[in-house]
C-alpha cells in the first residue's frame, strides 16, 4: 500500500504535473466539467470515481467507503453536519445529496488550492445552497462554529483531514459543546494511513459508543476501515 501511494502521489503525480503544467486536482475538476452532468451530484460523484479508478489515484473516500458514509448519513438524518477535510469536494457533494430540505453541511479545508477546486466542484454539482466551505485550520474554525456560523450542536461529523488532528479536534468539539447526545462521528482512513490515537481515544472513552466498518483504501485493494463513534453525552 505504501509503495503504491508513493508511486501515485509523489513520482507519477509530479511528473504529470510538470508535463501538463497543472495539478492533479485541476485535472480531476476538468474531467468532471467535461464529462459529468451539471446540477447532478450523483453524476459528479460517479465521474470523480471513474477518473480516480481509471486514470489517477486521489484521496477521495471512493465508492466502497462512500456506501458506508451514505448509510451513516442516512441513519443520522443530520440538520447540521460538519466535514473536516474537503479536498476536491467529493464527499461534500456525496453527503449533501442525502441531506433533507433545510439541512446544511459545513466543510473545512486548510489548503487554499483544494478549497478553490472544491468550491467549483460543489457549484457544478448544484449543492452550493446546502454546503458552506470554510477555509482555514480546523483548530481555529471549530471554536468559531457557535458564534460565527450559528451552530448549536452538530448531528454528524465526518473526519477526513490530517490523521494527527482526529483526536485533538474531537476533544475540541467536546470542549466547545458542539456534540449532543446521539451526535455521530465517522472517521476515514483509520487503518491506512491509520489513526491509532483516535481509535484509542474514542474506544476507551465512556462518552462514545464505537462501531468499526472494515473496507479498503479508495481505488485500491489495501485494507482500510472507517470508525463510527456515537456521542453518549
TrEMBL record:
Family membership noted in the UniProt record: Belongs to the class I-like SAM-binding methyltransferase superfamily. Cation-dependent O-methyltransferase family.
GO process annotations (BP): catecholamine catabolic process; developmental process; dopamine metabolic process; methylation
Encoding gene (name): Comt
Residues annotated for substrate binding in this entry: 163, 189, 218
Coiled-coil features, chain-numbered ranges: none
Cofactor: how and how many bound: Binds 1 Mg(2+) ion per subunit.
UniProt name for this protein: catechol O-methyltransferase
GO cellular component: axon; dendrite; membrane
Organism: Mystacornis crossleyi
Pfam families: Methyltransf_3 (PF01596)
Cofactor(s) it depends on: Mg(2+)
Binding-site residues, S-adenosyl-L-methionine: 61, 91, 109, 160
EC number: 2.1.1.6
InterPro entries: Catechol_O-MeTrfase_euk, SAM-dependent_MTases_sf, SAM_O-MeTrfase
Keyword tRNA processing in annotation: no
Molecular function per GO: catechol O-methyltransferase activity; magnesium ion binding
Residues reported to bind Mg(2+): 160, 188-189
Tagged with keyword DNA damage: no
Keyword annotations from UniProtKB, A to Z: Catecholamine metabolism, Magnesium, Metal-binding, Methyltransferase, Neurotransmitter degradation, S-adenosyl-L-methionine, Transferase
Amino acid at each position: 500500500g505504501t509503495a503504491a501511494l508513493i508511486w501515485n502521489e509523489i513520482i507519477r503525480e509530479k511528473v504529470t504535473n510538470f508535463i501538463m503544467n497543472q495539478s492533479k486536482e485541476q485535472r480531476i475538476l476538468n474531467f468532471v466539467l467535461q464529462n459529468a452532468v451539471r446540477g447532478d451530484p450523483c453524476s459528479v460523484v460517479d465521474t470523480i470515481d471513474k477518473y480516480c479508478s481509471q486514470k489517477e489515484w486521489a484521496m477521495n473516500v471512493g465508492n466502497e467507503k462512500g456506501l458506508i458514509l451514505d448509510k451513516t448519513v442516512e441513519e443520522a438524518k443530520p440538520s447540521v453536519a460538519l466535514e473536516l477535510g474537503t479536498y476536491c469536494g467529493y464527499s461534500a457533494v456525496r453527503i449533501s445529496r442525502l441531506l433533507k430540505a433545510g439541512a446544511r453541511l459545513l466543510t473545512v479545508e486548510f489548503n487554499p488550492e483544494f478549497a478553490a477546486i472544491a468550491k467549483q466542484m460543489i457549484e457544478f454539482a448544484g449543492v452550493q445552497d446546502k454546503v458552506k466551505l470554510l477555509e482555514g485550520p480546523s483548530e481555529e474554525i471549530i471554536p468559531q462554529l457557535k458564534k460565527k456560523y450559528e451552530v448549536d450542536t452538530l448531528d454528524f461529523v465526518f473526519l477526513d483531514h490530517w490523521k494527527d488532528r482526529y483526536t485533538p479536534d474531537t476533544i475540541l468539539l467536546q470542549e466547545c459543546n458542539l456534540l449532543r447526545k446521539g451526535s455521530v462521528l465517522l472517521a476515514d482512513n483509520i487503518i491506512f494511513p491509520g489513526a491509532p490515537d483516535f481509535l484509542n481515544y474514542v474506544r476507551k472513552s465512556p462518552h462514545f459508543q464505537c462501531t468499526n466498518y472494515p473496507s479498503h483504501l479508495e481505488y485500491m485493494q489495501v485494507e482500510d476501515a472507517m470508525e463510527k463513534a456515537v456521542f453518549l453525552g
